[in-house]
Here is the input.
Amino acid sequence: MKKLKHILILSVTLLLSACGFHFANDALSQWVFSEVQLQTGDKYSDIALAMKKELRSRGVNLVEQGNVPILRLNGTSTDDKVASVFKQGREAESLLTLSVSASLQMPDNKRYPINVQVSRTFFDNSRAALAKNAEQRAIWNDMYRQAAQQIVIKMISVQQQY
Here is the structure.
């Protein structure tokens, strides 16, 4: 029985690798922009740093000027809403929301608005105040990274239309 299981797993793996199967987000590896200009009001903001890191990880050169697409980070907004409460009336869970507004200006001066929103829940454990702050900061950093990934995905879709 165990040998049959191994043969079945091996045959499925070979079949999927031989038939040209690709994951849905494989378009991310087919990045066409080789250079992009990134404009932002604060080049050291969390979203700007996450965006630079994401673009560089995709092999995109960030340039200061030239006839290249311009990604403008217009602004971010964060929101923290109470999602649930304990019996004593204290906040138990929060819904963290990050909204990012950007625009992509192509070399022919056509502008495409890009808006992304990322939400996460955060359990508020009042017994571990220091750990709570570190965990919340890690969640926010991950949300900025995810927003940068969503912006890149939308840039790819604009590029494919262009």
